[in-house]
Amino acid sequence: MTDRRILVVRTVLVWILLELLAAAQVRAPSGDPVLFGWARAAAAPVLWAGEWIGSTASGLVQALASSANLMVVNRRLRVELETSEALRRLMAEDVAAVLELDRLAASVPSLAAGAVPGRAVYRNPNQGRMMVLVEGRRRIDPDTPAIARGGVVGRVVRSDGRRCWLELVTHPAAAVAVQTPDGSLHGLAVGSGTRAIEVQFIPRQAELLRGTELVTSGADGIYPPGLPVCRVTSVRESASAFLVVQAELAAGVDTARVILLLDGWNAGAGSGDPRR
Amino acid sequence: MKLVLLVAAALAVQAALGWPGAPRWGSAILLPMVFVIGPPLLREERRWPHAALALGLAWDLALEPVVGPGAIAWSAAAVTVGALVPLVADRSVRAWLAFGALGATVLLLARHLARWPLGLPSDLSWRWLLLSVGLTALWCGAVGWLLALDLPERWRAHRARKLR
Known about the structure:
Number of strands of chain A: 12
Order of helices and strands of chain A: HHEEEEEEEEEEEEH
Radius of gyration of chain B: 17 Å
Mean pLDDT of chain A: 89
Structural class of chain A: alpha+beta
Distance between the termini of chain A: 121 Å
Number of strands of chain B: 0
Largest interface: A-B, 15 and 18 residues
Number of helices of chain B: 7
Low-confidence stretches of chain A: none
Shape of chain B: globular
Order of helices and strands of chain B: HHHHHHH
Strand content of chain A: 25-35%
Largest sheet of chain A: 6 strands, antiparallel, barrel
Distance between the termini of chain B: 36 Å
Largest sheet of chain B: none
Radius of gyration of chain A: 45 Å
Oligomer: heterodimer
Low-confidence stretches of chain B: none
Helix content of chain A: 25-40%
Number of helices of chain A: 3
Shape of chain A: rod-shaped
Helix content of chain B: over 70%
Strand order of the largest sheet of chain A: 1-2-5-4-3-12
Strand content of chain B: under 5%
């Protein structure tokens, strides 16, 4: 920087000092020196900026706190919503179960009085097992027939408190005495370990059509007569004296919610068609 | 010391020009302007703004209600003149006239600008500016003409001729 520039810079600085000196001598209409007004005007942006920063920081903190509260409330509401949704599904399931029970009881009016309703909580049609929960701790006798919407599902093999284990008709060891609805043909529906049921002892000359519904005949002494068991799906001849008849289970084992255990039907209902 | 006395005398006369009864145009002449434009025109090596600053402070103390604007104005005039004089080769009476007018213009404008933020009333008008600039230029031109006459040398020559 040349001497002339240094001289000019110094001179300008001296001018500023002289102006400030003059401002300190002159008084504004308010009585304060003009210099005070200048100082206030110079400090005003700084004060405004400080106030703005403080206000912004305060707002930011409040926003963060509100956001945190909002997140907590949101999380709580989400949990409540999920809980309500679960309760709604449970209630819908219960309502559906009640409706299903009503329809089921209406299908066997003569047996419904002594029947014990239960909820199917476990099922394995391939293995022929099902577990049913009944209301209250009560003993269900073995060999008590169990029916679901559509027809017979099996019989009780064990009862422990509220839990009852059923042997489904599809179990390899299960057998149900069946007949055609008009009673012209009698046979034995036997489980095969799969979802199919084999109907044995149908005479070779019998006229049995595919789609024919087979009902219990009561000849086995376990199931009351007249309950739907299965529906014929195939009929073919064999070398023996009987037809090879395949059938599918009439009851919806896979979708049944409610199981009706016909406890003591022999003592109360007697013989006859339970659907009447 | 001689310069200080001359400045003091100039300020005293300047104050006298503003007394009641004096012609109004008298106070338009800026008598100390010759001490601002003189040194650079006479090629004296001085730090003109500093000297002008002292001159301005003295001006403020003597003639202004507030100390500061006068010092700024006089130093501004000195800076301007000091920057422009080396660019001009002319050192005649005409240069004294021109730089006197320039210095007066800068001084009056700088004084007006320095007083404006303070809220002080300003008596500057175009008429007063032209009057002051013209009279100050004439004053500076007269001083330059006197200096150009070199009266001491003429006096010594006159005495030498009479003694012969």
